[in-house]
Amino acid sequence: MRTAVQGSATRGRRGFGRRHAAKLTAAVLAASVLTACGSGGPGEEKAGGTLKVWVYQDASTKVQREAVERFNKTSDVKAELVEVPGEGYQDKMRSAMGTPNAPDVFFNWGGGSISSFVEKDMLVDLTSEIQKDDKLKDAFLPSILNAGKVNDKIYGVPMRGMQPVVLFYNKDVFEKAGAQPPESWDDLLELVDTFKKEGVTPFALAGTDAWTELMWVEYLLDRTGGAEVFQRIQDGDSSAWGDPAVLKTAETIRDLVDRGAFGKNYASVNYTADGASTLFAKGKAAMHLMGSWEYSNQQANQKEFADKGLGWTTFPALPDGEGDPKNVVGNPTNFWSVNSKLKGAEREAALEFVKTAAEDWYAEALVDNGDVPTNSGSEDMLTGHPAPDYALFQYDLVRDAPNFTLSWDQALPAQQASPMLTNIQKLFNKQLSPEEFVDAMKALK
């Protein structure tokens, strides 16, 4: 959310873009007016011989500014960075594509965020470009590069840090209870009982924001049925919502709610105003399933807790689950995509520009900014990260993941993502039974 000052850009759904970027006030939004490298906003006419490069405006943008400056020193076709304020970034992007003012290169989340553009042949298929360039092909972790695919073709080059969903825990609360982080699902259920007896909510949950509940559903379905179940859904097979693993996932959610895993008031707790994170940091909750930006969030708002009391671990396997416990869900990264309207020298220049994200200096700049780059072989760089142990944990987690599933609300088209989130919230609030949840999801088209 918009509560941390460093880290990489993320989601952008419903206008908040990165979930851990510093919240922009109205004054800042008014003042920023789509600035960058002397460029104007998306409504301006494109200058001849230049590339309009749209990026989500936040704390990581300085890395992209440097990329533009370096590129322009040697390229005849110049890049012009357009920093678009995060509120409604996706809406602005969708409105502009297909018009004369569309960006030439633009920041996105892959998956559902660009699938409609792919269907309309608006994007350059980068598959062959990447396959013929050995340096580019080997530059990124395979699970990350695959996450940017649409219809098994590559339409995006990774250009920011990774953001897996992590199970965080409060070291002080665990020590007081004589508990250890869960290594199995049985361990997790036992911890629910342990912390309830201690008068501590087992898991912080910002139930007013459905995307926080989505993280639970994503991991539970992955662990229950494997990454293949959601892949079928993402590929357009709505009948996959009827897979037995979906019902089992919904039943597990109901069981957690009934056990009191999230306390009694989670439906009124928010994330945007730091509600859940504060409960967690203050020891009112023992654990918090959240995107990796939670570390930066706590650094910004509860620094002593972040430095001394914040622990992290992986989401456990489920008994008889078919999913690989090394699988990860979340936001693999953000991507550069290239508009197919470009021809000749401008298209070649755009392709050269997006390749800058594969260079060592780019990965090092991300690390200096507090991000964990998606580039292969970045381990040594991470010793210089502001939080090296945490950075290496994330990197190893993603490097070793057989599958990294993109957050469903980004992987699916908007017309499916919004009702999906509503149904998930109703499931958590016991307004839908597990069976009713499955039926509601099967009805999504």
UniProtKB/TrEMBL annotation:
Cited PANTHER family: ARABINOSE-BINDING PROTEIN-RELATED, BLR3389 PROTEIN
Protein name, UniProt field: Xylobiose transport system substrate-binding protein
